Amino acid sequence: MKQTTQIGATVEEAISLALQKLGHSREQVDVEVLQEGKKGFLGFGARNAQVRVTVKDIVQQQVNEAVLQKVTSVEEVVIDETVEEEPIFVQDEQQIHQEHAQFDPIEEAKSYLTSIALEMGITDLSIEHTSDGKNVSFKLSSEKAALLIGKRGLTLNALQQLTQLILNKSAKSFMILQMDVENYRERRQVALEQLAARMADKAIRSRKPVAFEPMASYERKIIHNALANRLDIETHSEGTEPNRYLVIEPVK
């Protein structure tokens, strides 16, 4: 309950002062006259009027509701402002992520490789990577893995070479990329080692040099390593890239 007690020269003056203090109109309050004013004679016997003014309950309730509505409106504005600011925060976070990816050579290499795959019609490319110092390994998987490998791994070798260029474009130090698709490298190594053994035996039987078809340097290295412990044959490479090939000769 909101009320005040006010004095004045007259009752009306006391009421008027009380209404100004309470901030309400005459219709919104109940007035109780505690004491009537009296003018007296020549200053003697004069007495101020005194009233008690009380704000009506229904008016006070309306005021409270108005205040509550105003508070709610302010809270909604705050919430709305927060919601409006959220996309800006997200946008900044995405921008930071993009900037980070932009300067991460591995992420940039992945992005490049993904774009190439899309040009090849491959939309489900998955790339897992590991790194150890300057050595980086990409493991690729897709329902269209054969497209990524190509004939005898030629497409895979080309993708690896191009992606390594992208990798080192923004890298602070030189990095070596090893790329594989669905464990093709491992299966190819086993096949080359078996082929090397058969060709070495053929050279021994025929007592003549045996030449392989042109192949990539790392595949020639696999065959060199596979036959390194054999004392009855020798291996060397002939020709120029990309047609350089390996030859097995029996030891005379």
What is the element layout, followed by pairings?
Elements: E1 3-8, H1 11-22, E2 29-35, E3 49-55, H2 57-102, H3 105-119, E4 126-132, E5 135-141, H4 145-149, H5 154-169, E6 176-181, H6 184-206, E7 210-211, H7 217-226, E8 233-238, E9 245-250
Parallel strand pairs: 5-6
Antiparallel strand pairs: 1-3, 2-3, 4-5, 7-9, 8-9
Helix pairs in contact: 3-5, 6-7
| End-to-end C-alpha gap | 120 Å
* Coarse morphology: rod-shaped
Q: Which structural category fits the helices and strands? A: alpha+beta
The SSE string, one letter per element, is EHEEHHEEHHEHEHEE
- Unreliable spans: none
Strand order of the largest sheet: 1-3-2
Q: Provide a count of the helices.
A: 7
Portion in helices:
40-55%
Structural notes for this entry:
The protein has 252 residues and is α+β, with helices and mostly antiparallel strands. The chain has helices at residues 11-22, 57-102, 105-119, 145-149, 154-169, 184-206, 217-226, and strands at residues 3-8, 29-35, 49-55, 126-132, 135-141, 176-181, 210-211, 233-238, 245-250. The strands form three sheets. It has a three-stranded antiparallel beta sheet. The longest helix is centred in the first third of the chain and has 46 residues, at 57-102. It is rod-shaped. The mean pLDDT is 83.
Summary keywords:
3-stranded mixed sheet, 252 residues, alpha+beta
Short description:
This protein is an alpha+beta fold and 252 residues long. It has helices at residues 11-22, 57-102, 105-119, 145-149, 154-169, 184-206, 217-226; strands at residues 3-8, 29-35, 49-55, 126-132, 135-141, 176-181, 210-211, 233-238, 245-250.
